[in-house]
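Question (not urgent): is this output format expected?
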Amino acid sequence: MTSIASYTIFSIEGDVFEMTRQKKIAVINDFSGFGRCSLTVSIPIISVTGIQCCPLPTAILSNHTGYEDFFFDDYTDKMQLYYSKWEKLGLHFDGIYSGFLGSERQVEIVEDFIKRFSSDETIVIIDPVMGDDGRIYATLTRELCRRLKKLAAKADIITPNITETCILTGLPYTTQPDAKFLLSASEKLRHMGSRNIVITGINQGNTIGNFIYKEDGTYTLLSTPVAGISRAGTGDVFSSVIAADQVNGIPLESSVKRAAEFVAHAIKLSDEQTIPTQDGICFEKILSELI
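Got this back:
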């Protein structure tokens, strides 16, 4: 695993001199000051892998919306002004990772960002946050759903849960997806344009499964023992590990396995400390597992 890339800076009389630079991932998500989700999860997780995490906030919240009250400041109108300065600096990214998007306009902005800041070597990871447990989030309009499908088609890797998989493909929701369902859904997503699919959080009773479908048509189901109760922010933790690992060149199966095990360990620690579920998972003390 390496988070350092090299590039040619100059040559003198035929001798090429190179210098190294740190790899960078642009993370497009909201910033919630409390509750362990979105950017406050991605920044430490990506950083501990040796990659520079460059946040592009979609909104600023005092705490995530799972609490009864919160401060919210929509950042949509400022996003393009924000990254126009990055463009002026000539920045490009080894990875672009997009999480929750609350409006059609934000999806358009992410599409524009990918166009401006990616190259053929950039890995684009899209977590199409649309719903969970068979319930669609209140912000998801028909037009937003259409645009998120279009955005997912631009991804090298997407990480939908079962609910989001059903929304994207039009398949009926099921709490116990079998191998036939997972393969059919993945083939539909691949046909839509997504290169690699990781369907997350599959309830298998005593285990949680993650189904990997790769662009070469190979697939596998990896299972991890249930470690404790369901908590806020686990999807953000999982996808952040995947994003960092892919930029660091770790095989997708290995990355999914260690992301799932990391989440499970953090859930176990959180349960032992009786942390409220809405406060997310206590991953801080085990960040070194990702080095």
